[in-house]
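Form 7-S
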Amino acid sequence: MIRPKTKEEIIILREAGKRLANVLSTLKEKVADGVSLADLDALGEKLIRERGDVPAFLNYTPEGAPRAYPSSICISVNNEIVHGIPIEGGRILREGDIVTLDAGLVHKKLIVDSAITVPVGNIDPRARDLLEITQQSLYKGIEAAQVGARVGDISHAIESFVRPTGFSIYRDLVGHGVGYAVHEDPYVPNVGKQGTGPRLVEGMVIAIEPMLGTGSDGIMLADDGYTYLTEDGSLSAHFEHTIALTENGPLVLTEE
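Output:
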C-alpha cells in the first residue's frame, strides 16, 4: 500500500535529508587511497548518532534476507553494485577505485535514503563517464516525478537517457517508497514504459536510484547474502536521492 506523507512529515523528512547529505559529504571527503571501509562505516555511524539520529540500515532485515544487515553504511567498491558490507573482509580503498556510499537515517521516526559513488584519486576516463552519466540519469528520473504522472514515466526517463550512452542498467535493482520504513511501496524501476505503473500523487516519498555499469546487465548475489555484484566483473555506479512529490514539483529531500 502506498502511504503519502503529510506536509508536516515532509518538513521532518527534509530535516533528515539535510542531515544525511551532510554525512555523505563528510564521508566523501575522507575517501582516499589506504582508507579502510570499516573506518568509513564507523565514522558514518558516529556522524549519524551524534545528532541524535539512528542508522536506518544497521540491523535491518529485508524480506528474505539470511540475517540482519551488520553495518550502518552500505559501501560497495568497483564491481560491487549495492549493499556491500564494510565491516567484513578488511577491504582497503586503492587509487583508481570507485566507491559507493549508500546510507539511511531515522530522524524523528521518519527515514531517508541516499547514495553517491565517488572516485578514489585518479580514475580512468570510462569510470569517470560512468559516474557522470549515472548521476545525470538520477536527475532525469527526478524531473519526471510529477504529480499526476506514473512510476513508469520515471523509469522511462532514466532508461531513455542511459541507453544511447552504452552503459548497462541493472533492471533487477530498483528504487522504492521510503519514510515510515526503509522499503515501502511503490517499487521504482530504472527501466519501463511511459504511462504505466502506479500514479504519482502529492505527498508520495520515493527513493530514485539508478545503478549503471560498464559491462553486461547481469548481476549475482555474493556469499555474504547482501552484496550484489556485476556478473562479468565490470564497474558499476549508484546514485540515489529521496524525493517528495509536491504540487510545485519534486522536492529533493537528501541534499544540503
